[in-house]
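debug: dumping io for the single-chain case to check the tokenizer round-trip. Nothing else runs in this session.
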Amino acid sequence: MIDFNPFNNPDALWQHAIMLSVSAIIGFIIGYISRQKLINQLTGELAGTERELEDCQNMPAPPVSFHTGDDPILNRILARRKELNFERIGRATPPDADNLKEIVGIGPFTERKLNALGIFTFHQIARFTREDIDKVNDIIEFFPGRIERDNWVGQALELISRKR
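debug: decoded output
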């Protein structure tokens, strides 16, 4: 009778070890190639998304209208804009405007309030002193201490350094 037990063969242990090693190497190669394809695909998608983000960030800010007769909050802010020291923080116009919403804590309406006040750029915010922060906080009717907690000045400085 024929014995089909492979372990009766004196070289069977070596043959199994070699087959196991070869299959492990082949599995590693297939996994590596698959992973590299996925990495290349994701890298391409990331590059495309970064280009789209950069395009969005480089879009000019829409012109700001200060004479919104229907918005009493912006009219109150507009009336108090002379209380700020623009000689120290600098003057800017809507064409100079940065996207202030990039600062954490500034949303669309807060940006409109700042624009109504005459603050359009990161440079202006970066020059705020403690007195300016308190005055802006009061004028735009923001939560007391919020500008400092969100560190607008530090964020503005960081955004300025990134723009260079």
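debug: round-trip ok. The chain has a mean pLDDT of 86.
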